[in-house]
Specification:
CATH architecture of the largest domain: 3-Layer(aba) Sandwich
Order of helices and strands: HEEHEHEHEHHEEHEHEEEHEHEEEE
Catalytic activity: 5-amino-6-(5-phospho-D-ribitylamino)uracil + NADP(+) = 5-amino-6-(5-phospho-D-ribosylamino)uracil + NADPH + H(+); 2,5-diamino-6-hydroxy-4-(5-phosphoribosylamino)-pyrimidine + H2O + H(+) = 5-amino-6-(5-phospho-D-ribosylamino)uracil + NH4(+)
Oligomer: single chain
Cofactor: Zn(2+)
Pfam family, one: RibD_C
Largest sheet: 9 strands, mixed
Structural class: alpha/beta
CATH superfamily of the largest domain: Dihydrofolate Reductase, subunit A
Number of helices: 10
Strand order of the largest sheet: 11-10-9-8-12-6-13-16-15
Keywords: Hydrolase, Metal-binding, Multifunctional enzyme, NADP, Oxidoreductase, Riboflavin biosynthesis, Zinc
GO molecular function, one term: 5-amino-6-(5-phosphoribosylamino)uracil reductase activity
Number of domains: 2
Length: 351
């Protein structure tokens, strides 16, 4: 492995520590090397805090070494003032001569300007080291910037015979989830929720399961809850409108007197492309990623409009024989298969 690739891989590795906390900022990793030794490293702080380059420079004990050091970053250093000053300016201030960048930042306020600023200041800049790996790492941010929509993850659990929900006769009178997977798989789902900005479900899922859509089995920030409720059937007895978590409801009801306080209502036309309208609205809400957990109609809507990036599908070992059949995805690439005790998890990418 070439030396630049080695350190960019380390940047990607430490940047993962920011997953679920940095958005809408990208989760960047930065490593500073002096004479083949790492003297400082950092990753993007939770939104509003210092960027990766700042944290890496602050971690260097002897700042005099920076003049002869190389800084590695997964994404082009920013060149504009936001909640924090430009990282390119900080690199120039400390006279770091060599900068190695994995990927250009497509954000309109950066888009090569950070690289140009560094070059104009006399820095030697190398761009495109492990670019594909950096694109994969920054997939949420890049999808948001390049496609003007959130990164979309489909998730469901299905039985060995291909059902995602049982027939009504198998359910209890109390509205609660009907589990197909084991405890460890369910905990993994809560980890995923903590990693994404939002979670989306349809009306039928709420009415049948009364889910909380939180991360109670993991440590992290609860995602914004997004609910499809065309006719406002979901009343205050359901967890999703308990106002404990930021909640957005898509509806076609324009009568605001039926809206609940502290809940965001966004009207859309349910007779047209629903998934496209939701993606546009979430983009305007600055939501970069969403995990869609059901139900069948909601999942199939996004599949039909080809608005999804990943599918995470659990297969349990139980049999329902009758019930709601699992969604169907025609074109997909299997990325990975995991065994979680007796559950099987298949991870797919959209072709």
């Amino acid at each position: 492995m070439k030396i630049h690739e080695f350190y960019i891989l380390r940047c990607i590795q430490i940047a993962q520590n920011g997953l679920g906390t940095t958005a809408p900022n990208p989760m960047v990793g930065a490593v500073i090397v002096h004479e083949n030794k790492i003297i400082g490293e950092g990753y993007t702080s939770p939104y509003g805090g210092p960027h990766a380059e700042v944290n890496a420079i602050n971690a260097v004990a002897d700042k005099n070494l920076l003049v002869n050091a190389t800084i590695y970053v997964t994404l082009e250093p920013c060149s504009h003032h936001g909640k924090t000053p430009p990282c390119a300016d900080l690199i120039i201030k400390h006279k770091i001569k060599n900068v190695v960048v994995g990927l250009l930042d497509p954000h309109e306020k950066v888009a090569g300007q950070g690289i140009q600023k560094l070059k104009d200041a006399g820095c030697t800049v190398t761009v495109g080291v492990l670019e594909n790996e950096c694109r994969e790492h920054h997939k949420r941010f890049l999808t948001f910037q390049e496609k003007n929509r959130p990164y979309i993850i489909l998730k469901w659990a299905e039985t060995a015979d291909g059902f995602i929900a049982p027939e009504l006769a198998l359910r209890t009178k109390e509205k609660q989830p009907f589990w197909i997977t084991n405890t460890y798989s369910r905990q993994l789902v809560h980890q995923w929720r903590a990693e994404e900005q939002a979670i989306l479900v349809g009306t039928h899922t709420v009415l049948a399961d009364n889910p909380k859509l939180d991360v109670r089995s993991w440590t992290g920030k609860n995602p914004t809850r997004i609910i499809l409720d065309r006719n406002l059937k979901i009343n205050t007895t359901f967890h999703v409108v308990d106002k404990s978590i930021k909640t957005i409801i898509f509806t076609e009801i324009l009568e605001e007197s039926r809206y609940q306080s502290e809940v965001i209502y966004i009207p859309i036309d349910f007779k047209k492309n629903i998934a496209s309208q939701i993606c546009t609205a979430l983009y305007l809400q600055n939501i970069q990623s969403v995990i869609i957990e059901g139900g069948l109609q909601t999942l199939q809507t996004f599949i039909a409009e080809n608005l999804w990036d990943e599918a995470r599908i659990f297969k349990g070992n139980s049999l329902f024989k009758r019930g709601v059949k699992a969604p169907i995805i025609a074109t997909r690439t299997l990325k990975e298969t995991r065994n979680i005790e007796k559950d099987i998890l298949n991870l797919y990418y959209n072709d």
